[in-house]
Amino acid sequence: MIGLEFLNIAPQRFAEQAPALVVVGPLIAACAAVLAPGRRWAWFLCVGASAFAFWMAVVLASEVARQGVISYAMGGFPAPLGIEFRVDALSAMFALLISGMAVLTAVFSGESLETEIMSSKHPLMQGGFLTCLAGLLGLVLTGDAFNAFVFLEISSIGVYAMIAMGGARDRRAYPAAFNYLIMGTIGATFYLIGVGFLYAATGTLNMADIAARIPTLTSDRSIEVGLAFILIGLALKAAVFPLHQWLPAAYSHAPSMIVVFLSATATKASVYLIIRYLSTVFAFDWQVETAFMAFVLAPLSVAGILICSMQAAVDPEIRRILAYSSVAQVGYMTLAIATATSAGVSAALFHLFNHGVMKAALFMAIGGAAIHLKSQRLSDFAGAAKSAPWTMTAFGIAALSLLGAPLTAGFLSKLRLIQSLVAADWGWAAAVIGLSSLIGVFYVGRIFEVVFFRSEPEGGSAVREAPVSILLPLWLLAIANIWFGIDATIPLGLAESAAGAVMGATTLSPAGAP
Amino acid sequence: MEWTAPLLADPSLLFGAALLVMLAAILCAIVVSRKLLTSVALTGLFTLVAALWYIAMDAPDVAFTEAVVGGGVSTLILLGSILLTRESAEPVSPSRMVFPAIAVILAGVAILYAVGSIPGFGDPASPANASVGRDYLERTYKEVGIPNVVSAVLASYRGFDTLGETTVVFAAAVGVMLLLGFGERALGDPARRHEALNPDLVEEIDHHVVLRVATKIMIPLMFLFGLYVLFHGEVGAGGGFQAGVILAIALIVHALVFGLSETMRAFPAAAMRAGASAGVLIYAGVGVINMLNGGAFLDYDFLFPPPLEQALSGPDGHAGQHYGIIAIEIGVTATVASGITAIFYGFAGRAPDIASRGASRGPESGGGS
Amino acid sequence: MIDALATGYVYAIIVAMMMASLFVLLTTGNLIRKMIGLSLFQTTAGLFYIALSKVGGGTAPIIIDAESAVGQARAARLDPAYVEHFGVDGVVYGNPLPHVLILTAIVVGVATLSVGLAIAVRVREAYGDTELDAVRRADAAASEPEPPGPRGRPNA
Fold it and tell me: Angle at Cα C58 formed by Cα C57 and Cα C60, nearest 5°?
């Protein structure tokens, strides 16, 4: 399915433990990294543990492809008494995306941290990063509603502090991190309250068990409100418009390493949980839910796509342009999910994967450039392509992909988004995507004009070529953007089997267009 | 089945009602107060009354945790941060209250609408109380073999959650160390050593020999109590978290009375950093041993290789569960005690900086160090 | 019915407190007060869970022997049929599961509080104030002529 099955060479007994190992590996490495004697050691641990997690994720994905859903009982207690890790194609896809991005970020982090954080604190940064990785992986693998809350917090708490570490260069990172902490914690607490209602109504915390008990209930009210609280909480975490205000500031002032990783994974893990609740727990066939998706989620997504694209078009700071565009892209995904069709979910997942690949590349290129250039104003990148051709060419490829130019990954995923919307009779929504792509032409064009066509300022550009340890992961991502634009077997295969896993079992009630 | 609901006869109910009204009153006072010190004191009070309410709700473990964590550590950190920031909050203009008020009222109405369909308060037959929760009560003694069901669920049935929670403390300690350092500034400058906490406080204390002597006696007792809570968690209220917090508070009391630098000499920041990660390592390590012995992660029945487990436990013993729970509780205690102490060092180590800058309050541009 | 009236107030008060703390959190512009509101909001979510776990006439979920003096004293206050139906081996206990969840949530809460306050301290050091309005004004002033650019070597 993914072309990496050859990595599934682990002995069977080892493979059986993969669901636990994928989380425990980075967790143990996080503790070790904090104790590491020097920053080199911490970096090695970080790369090694991410690679281990990726390996385990590959093992998981190929096992899932071979034998279907994997259930792993933590502590040996069967669900619902104990906590269950429940891995299906959807979880496996996210685990692959998150751990794969972690490997690239870990490689990138070495040189990048060097310029941004004082070296005695590198082990702590690497430890915090690995903790966040373990949290995100646990979040997408767990089958327990409360356990997901714990992982939501693990993946966030260190991140708040690490975003604030951008304050050494730009003090605006402090209020941005604080705001994120407040919004993120409100989101998590809303989620907690929502889970409380589900628990009050069903008496269990295991997601599959909740799903099984919901149809037997006589009253829906606490389920409805529970779902509402869970979705609002997760929408805050996923930066769904209009709950996205924390994101642009947090992304534009955080240390590069954190922003590369978060932009590719963190909001996506919350999108995963939204899909999980809408599909597995509530089975998509619930009247209130269909109404919610058609009349709340879809309009909000449209508003988010248009408004944030326009904000991206006028903002003077390069990282904030990309951050606003991220919010707009989350809107694409939720819009496709709102159709509640298998094609829609699959297109959303496909786009989510590609968006991770392109945004990570974009932020990585900016991070590479930022080693020498402390400013983030777009105008300071004038003529950067001349002084840093390798870095900026990779940046250009990813930017074209963001735009949806043909022969890039972005093109294929936009095409599928539009196809799925048209197939669901949501032609107006497809038009919105077209319109926002036009705005995209404007802001990507603006970046291109400055980076590639404007002449260097007096005395030469401050941008220099990034070191090899940054160019390597950067170009891997850039090539992936082209590769997946020509041959999309891998991401498409992942997205389709993931959508099949969550949508297949349920009979879909077609959602009416609003 | 014929039975009478004992709700109205339950004396704890009346007690609970009174406490809830108190909580509401305290919260109202917090809403209107603008002095930060008042708000913090009231918040501490709120959590203590909440702890009493938890006792009325038959949740002594939660009450214990809320009292030591909410009433102790949270209040301390809040006080420390007021010292480092400012005394009172700016008033909020009414126009800014409109949107939040609407949002809050909407959310409140939504919850009340849902609460209507939840089975009545105290109903033993409600889904929450009748399904998994009841299973634990019936199975714990057979499967885990310890009387405190909360400890059993926490450490064994849902031990993975508890590992996550320990990790959260570890992550928070890492975060605070990143942001505020390890209190090294308190040690760095000899001239400042003595005033490492609030200078006024230290001077004040020099006149209080009684306090010093009393503290010297108190601290060993607090340590002893912490250890008692750790190992007593299986049979009564208590466990790793509470124990860890108590140990940390003992160190904090020491620092408050004898000065931060004294405490940091005895318990260096590097050791606290190591302790915080060692605790998580112990916890996860137990899980890895279980896997090596052929069980699932954190399945303490596989703490020992199966033949040894049989020899230790006999026909219906639970040696693996017993020792496994003790081992992970020690891990939790290590992380919580060291983590909270490290967090305290971070805040307290910042104090001399601010104190010396306090006179010239104004926008400073520097990033800190 | 009497029971429902006599006990319905519990959830009503908890929900009101939940919303009051959310209100504090959303309206104030002071970072410390925001953290206080957040911490109270988390505490009230805990109150909600523990209210769910209450079992009428129950005792703390620490297994005791029904034949012991304590167990018999407990049972004496209750209808035997009730104990028979809802008790475990002759004793009625509270529901342990929400207790476990809220133990976890309390610890998560203090962790969030400490990180949030640490960031607030850094805001105070960087801006000289902990009011968001003042921070916004300072940022607006700084971005007019020249953005806060390079700030020298990376530091803490």
Answer: 145
In one-letter notation, the amino acid at residue B127 is: P
Distance CA B53, CA B50 (A): 5
Query: ∠A247-A309-A256 over CA atoms, to 5°?
Result: 40
Segment holding A71, helix H or strand E: strand A70-73
In this structure, what are the phi and psi dihedrals at residue A332, rounded to the nearest 5 degrees? -55, -45
pLDDT tens, position by position, B80-135: 888 777 677 777 788 788 888 888 888 888 888 887 777 778 788 888 888 888 88
Of A117, A172, A185, the CB nearest to C148: A172
Which tokens go with B146? 């310890």
Cβ of C68 under 8 Å from any chain B Cβ? no
- Domains of chain B: which residue ranges? 10-88, 148-358
Query: What is the pLDDT at residue B148?
Result: 87
CA-nearest of A381, A404, A384, A406 to A393 is A384
Considering CB atoms only, which of B110, B161, B175 is closest to A160?
Answer: B175
The span from the CA of A127 to the CA of A113, in Å, is 13
- Other CB atoms within a 10 A radius of the CB of residue A386 amount to 16
Burial per residue of B249-280, b for 16 or more beta-carbon CB atoms within 10 angstroms, e otherwise: bbbbbbbbbbbbbebbeebebeebbbbbbbbb
Is pTM beyond 0.90? Reply is yes
**Is residue C67 within 8 Å of residue B136, measured between CB atoms?**
no
Query: B326 CA to chain A: closest CA distance, Å?
Result: 15
Distance in angstroms (rounded) separating the CA atoms of residues A222 and B123: 16
Only one residue has tokens 């914690």, namely A185
Nearest CB partner across the interface for A75, out of B127, B132, B159: B159
Question: Using a CB-CB distance cutoff of 8 angstroms, which residues of chain A are in contact with residue C11?
Answer: none
End-to-end CA distance of chain C: 62
In a mutational test of the C interface, the residue from A172, A199, A463 whose CB has the highest number of chain C CBs within 10 Å is: A172
| Cβ–Cβ below 8 Å for A116 and C118 | no
Residue matched to tokens 């180590």: B349
Neighbours of chain C (3+ CB pairs under 8 A): A, B
pLDDT tens digit string along A220-278? 788 888 888 999 999 999 988 888 888 988 988 889 899 999 988 988 999 999 999 98
Q: Do strands A70-73 and A84-87 pair parallel, antiparallel, or not at all (unpaired)?
A: antiparallel
Q: Are B100 and C139 in contact (CB under 8 A)?
A: no
CATH number of C2-54+95-143: 1.10.287.3510
DSSP state of A505: T
Nearest to C116 among A117, A178, A377 (CB): A178
Can you give the pLDDT at residue B365?
A: 35
**pLDDT of the residue at A65:** 87
pLDDT tens-digit readout, A41-99: 899 999 999 999 999 999 999 888 888 889 999 988 888 899 999 999 999 999 999 99
ipTM of the complex as predicted: 0.92
Contacting residues of C for B355, CB less than 8 Å apart? none
B-chain CB neighbours of A46 within 8 Å are none
Residue A151: per-residue pLDDT: 96
Neighbours of A437 (CB within 10 A): 18
CA distances from C113 to A118, B33, B343 (A): 25, 20, 11
- Name the β-bridge partners of A85: A72, A142
HEC string of A335-372? HHHHCCCHHHHHHHHHHHHHHHHHHHHHHHHHHHHCCC
